[in-house]
Design a protein that fits this description.
By secondary structure, this protein is mainly beta. Helices cover about 5% and strands about 30% of the residues. Bound molecules: zinc ion.
Protein backbone atom coordinates (compact mmCIF):
# COMPACT_ATOMS: atom_id res chain seq x y z
CA UNK A 1 0.00 0.00 0.00
CA UNK A 2 1.46 3.35 -0.99
CA UNK A 3 2.20 5.87 1.68
CA UNK A 4 2.78 9.57 1.69
CA UNK A 5 3.62 12.20 4.24
CA UNK A 6 0.88 14.17 5.86
CA UNK A 7 1.49 17.88 5.19
CA UNK A 8 -0.10 18.69 8.52
CA UNK A 9 1.71 16.43 10.96
CA UNK A 10 4.50 14.91 8.84
CA UNK A 11 3.41 11.41 9.71
CA UNK A 12 3.08 8.63 7.18
CA UNK A 13 -0.37 8.36 5.69
CA UNK A 14 -1.53 5.19 4.04
CA UNK A 15 -3.20 5.79 0.73
CA UNK A 16 -5.43 3.22 -0.85
CA UNK A 17 -3.68 1.52 -3.74
CA UNK A 18 -6.62 2.27 -5.97
CA UNK A 19 -6.71 5.94 -5.08
CA UNK A 20 -6.82 8.38 -7.90
CA UNK A 21 -5.80 11.97 -8.21
CA UNK A 22 -8.35 14.12 -6.45
CA UNK A 23 -9.37 11.44 -3.99
CA UNK A 24 -9.82 12.41 -0.39
CA UNK A 25 -7.76 10.83 2.34
CA UNK A 26 -8.02 11.25 6.08
CA UNK A 27 -4.79 11.27 8.03
CA UNK A 28 -4.95 8.60 10.71
CA UNK A 29 -2.58 10.54 12.88
CA UNK A 30 -4.08 14.02 13.05
CA UNK A 31 -7.38 13.55 11.26
CA UNK A 32 -6.55 16.13 8.61
CA UNK A 33 -8.53 15.97 5.42
CA UNK A 34 -6.11 15.51 2.56
CA UNK A 35 -6.49 15.26 -1.17
CA UNK A 36 -4.37 13.17 -3.51
CA UNK A 37 -2.60 15.54 -5.86
CA UNK A 38 -0.09 13.14 -7.34
CA UNK A 39 0.33 9.40 -7.76
CA UNK A 40 3.92 8.83 -8.78
CA UNK A 41 4.90 9.28 -6.05
CA UNK A 42 1.80 9.76 -4.00
CA UNK A 43 1.48 13.36 -2.93
CA UNK A 44 -1.02 14.78 -0.51
CA UNK A 45 -2.18 18.33 -0.02
CA UNK A 46 -4.42 19.70 2.68
CA UNK A 47 -7.98 19.85 1.48
CA UNK A 48 -9.38 23.31 0.96
CA UNK A 49 -11.81 24.19 3.68
CA UNK A 50 -15.01 23.24 2.00
CA UNK A 51 -17.78 22.38 4.36
CA UNK A 52 -20.08 21.50 1.52
CA UNK A 53 -20.06 17.76 1.84
CA UNK A 54 -23.05 16.56 -0.18
CA UNK A 55 -23.19 13.32 1.78
CA UNK A 56 -23.55 15.17 5.08
CA UNK A 57 -26.34 17.47 4.09
CA UNK A 58 -28.69 18.94 6.61
CA UNK A 59 -26.35 20.97 8.75
CA UNK A 60 -25.14 23.62 6.33
CA UNK A 61 -28.41 24.80 4.92
CA UNK A 62 -27.44 28.44 4.65
CA UNK A 63 -27.00 29.94 1.22
CA UNK A 64 -23.45 29.40 0.04
CA UNK A 65 -23.86 31.94 -2.74
CA UNK A 66 -23.18 34.62 -0.18
CA UNK A 67 -19.99 32.93 0.84
CA UNK A 68 -18.62 32.59 -2.64
CA UNK A 69 -19.06 35.96 -4.21
ZN1 LIG B 1 -1.58 14.16 9.77
Amino acid sequence: MPTSICPECSEEVYVDAESEQGDNVICDECGAKLVVVGLDPVELDPQEEADSDPTASGLDSYDFDEERY
